[in-house]
Amino acid sequence: MTNSAGARSSLRHRMIMKRIGILNGGGDCPGLNAVTHGVVGAANTLGWEVVGFRDGFEGLLPPGDYKLLKRSKTQGILKLGGTILGTTNRGHFSSKQGAGETVGIERQLIEDAKKTIHQLGVEALIVVGGDGTLSTALQFQRAGVPVIGVPKTIDNDLQATAMTFGFDSAVSTVVDALDRLHTTAESHKRVMVVEVMGRHTGWIALFSGIGGGADIILIPEIPFHYSSIAKAIRKRESEGNHTTLVVVAEGAAPEGGHQSVESNEGAGEYRLGGIGDRVACEIERLTGKETRSCTLGHLQRGGSPTSWDRVLATRFGVKAVHLIRDGCFGHMVSYQSYQVGSVPIEEAVEKLKLVDPNGEVVGTARAVGISFGD
Fold first, then answer.
1. Which residue of the set 55, 131, 155, 157 is catalytic?
2. Which of 215, 232, 251, 277 could form a disulfide with 220 if both were Cys (CB 3.0 to 4.6 A apart)?
3. What is the pTM of this model?
4. Can you give the residue range of the structural domain that contains 269?
C-alpha cells in the first residue's frame, strides 16, 4: 500500500470511528461491571472507542474525570461486584427527591457537561442507573446530548422493564441470610426480624421472603397492623411452631403510620431505616416472645453478581451499543418476554413498578401460609 493510499485508509477509519461514553449513577449494585464489559465488547467489535466517566455525571464536569476503556482491560471485570467507574447518588446532578418527585438540573451544569462531552469527541452517552439517574439522563437528552439508558436498581421498581440487573443478586444475598437465621432462631425459639432494602416497593422482601421461607413479609404496598403480626405469631405458637421469621422492607409502614426515617439531611432522597427494630420491639411487647432484629443494609449491594445478573447486564450493555448504532436515542434498554428491547426513557421514569397486593406472587405467598400483617 502506498503512503497516500495508507493515509486515505487512515482518514476513512477516523471518519467512521465513533467514540461513546458510559457512566453509572445512583447506588451501586452487582452487575455494573458486566454492563461495562458488554458495552466495551460490542463497541470495540464495531470499531468504536469507549470513554468511561468516573463517579456518575460528576465525571462530566470540566475538565472531566474519565478513562479510555478497551476490551483487553475489561474482560476480567464481568464477575466483579461494584464498579470500576464509581457511582454516586449525591452531588450536582441529583434529580429525585422522592417517589415521582423530579427536580430540574441547573441548565449551566448541563452546558458545562456538554463542553466536556464535545471536547472529548463523545457522540453518544450510555447512562446506567435507576429512576433518579434516568430522570437526569432524560434532561440531558432534551438538552441535545444523545443518550441511551440502561436500567439498574436492586429494587426492580422500573415500570418499563420486567427485570433489572442487581435484583437477582440482592435476593440471593437475602435468601442466604435467611437460611442462616433460621437455624439460630430455632435454637433459641426466637422471632427474627430481617430488614431489607425497598424504599417504595417490596420486590426484594417479597421474593426473598418466599425463597427464604419467611413466615411474615411486610412491604410498602400493604400497610400492616402490629396486632395482626402478633396474631400470626400466636397462631404459629399454637400449632407448635416456636420460631417466626419476619422480612420487612425498609419502606414498609403500619396502617395510618409513616415510614421510619433515619436521616433527612443533604440533597436527594431521605434515608430510611429502623423499621426492623420497631417491628421487633412491638412483637416482643405484644407477644412476650424473645425477638431480635437484623438489618442487612449494603450487604445486598455488595459481592459478585449471580450468573443471571451477569448475563442480563451483558445483554443490556450490548443492546445499548446497538441502539446507538441504530440511532435510537432517548431510549432505555428493556427486558420483556425474555427478550431485550427498548422503550422511551420517558416511559421508564413515568411511574414506579409496585407490587400488586392482589397479584399472583402475593397470592402465592398467602397460599403457603405467609402473612402480610394486614
1. 155
2. 251
3. 0.89
4. 170-301
